[in-house]
Design brief:
The protein is α/β, with parallel strands linked by helices. It has two domains: 163 residues, D-Maltodextrin-Binding Protein, domain 2 (3-Layer(aba) Sandwich); 102 residues, Periplasmic binding protein-like II (D-Maltodextrin-Binding Protein, domain 2, 3-Layer(aba) Sandwich), CATH 3.40.190. 44% of the residues lie in helices and 19% in strands. Strands 1, 2, 3, 4, 5, 6, 7, 8, 9 and 10 form a ten-stranded mixed sheet that branches. Helix 6 links the parallel strand 5 and strand 6.
């Protein structure tokens, strides 16, 4: 009877598995992983998206911060979870388009272990100069940098960070030279910029907007890196209109998932994210910090990641940039 009993148990297990897989998605707690410390720009995005999912689907959610190693820890964690769409990732350029070219080994592979689901929001970088430089506009800045190539220092939030790569791309296209001063994070770079210890910094608009408007005695915003002016800093010209034709660097936030997540679940997540961005708390929260809400299909987002990845790979290779 033992073999028969074992067979009955296996049949029952298989049947229960079929029932489980046949349940509509989602059917349990949704975990939204933010691969940065609590309090980062990505936390409120995760919470607002989770609130929308809970209202739409009636399932609870939590936002889980798993920071460290330039977002490798949190991203790698999602890559190791079940591919059932219940563990999601709030992703950004670093882990998706920069890290694969900066590190010899990662705990995940973009496009295989982690895949794009939908964009959530986009924002340009702002070229911010310290008032220790004798410049009032972009033309002054270029003239001063060309005349003083050994005296101009720029900050970044770390070697290989998007703030570093944007500056390198800018210097190459503008034909300028400056000395890189990396910091351990964006706030440290901003502090030294405001303190007059470095000359310029390419800061994502959400974190730049407050101090460039309130501390005009310490910094001056010279340009934004979008092709068109930002509605959040409408008086600041674009590098494109200032002569660097086609110059564009856009930072972004998105939703990503395990690479083996069923296609129908990815489509459902993408569609619901688009609904969340169509109105309500999430788009309002994004606009309040200077970010433009922007949804996409998984295919559109994947193409965006591929283009960005190729751009940063070329800069990293050309400048032989290595992670800290």
């Amino acid at each position: 009877m033992k073999p028969f009993a074992r067979a009955i148990a296996l049949i029952a297990l298989a049947a229960s598995s079929v029932v489980a897989h046949g349940e509509p998605y989602p059917n349990k707690l949704i975990k939204i992983v933010v691969p940065f410390p609590a309090g980062s720009d990505l936390d409120p995005i995760g919470r607002s998206l989770g609130d929308h999912f809970r209202t739409a689907w009636g399932q609870p959610y939590i936002v889980e911060n798993r920071a460290g190693a330039s977002a490798q820890i949190g991203t790698g964690h999602v890559a190791k979870q079940p591919a059932d769409g219940h563990t999601l990732l709030i992703c950004s350029p670093g882990p998706m388009t920069i890290n694969p070219h900066l590190y010899a080994k990662l705990p995940y592979t973009v496009g295989k272990d982690i895949v794009p689901v939908s964009l959530i929001g986009t924002t340009p970088m702002v070229l911010v100069a310290s008032t220790r430089m004798p410049v009032k506009n972009y033309a002054d800045f270029v003239s001063y940098a060309k005349a003083n190539p050994d005296k101009v220092f720029y900050a970044s939030a770390g070697a290989g960070n998007i703030t570093h790569l944007t500056a390198e791309l800018f210097l190459r296209q503008a034909g300028l030279t400056a000395t890189h001063t990396p910091f351990k994070g964006g706030q440290a770079a901003i502090n030294d910029l405001l303190g007059g210890h470095v000359d310029f910094y390419f800061n994502p608009l959400p974190s730049a907007r407050t101090y460039v408007q309130s501390q005009t005695d310490k910094v001056v915003p010279l340009a934004v890196t979008s092709l068109e002016r930002s509605p959040y800093l409408p008086n600041v010209p674009t590098l494109n209109e200032l002569g660097l034709k086609g110059f564009e660097v856009i930072s972004w936030y998105g939703l990503c998932a395990h690479g083996d997540t069923p296609r129908e679940i990815l489509t459902q997540l993408s569609g619901e994210t688009a609904k969340a961005l169509a109105g309500g708390e999430l788009p309002e929260r994004l606009r309040n910090v200077g970010t433009t809400p922007r949804a996409s299909t998984p295919e559109q987002f994947a193409e965006h990641v591929r283009r960005e990845s190729a751009k940063w790979a070329a800069i990293i290779k050309d400048k032989d940039i290595r992670a800290d």
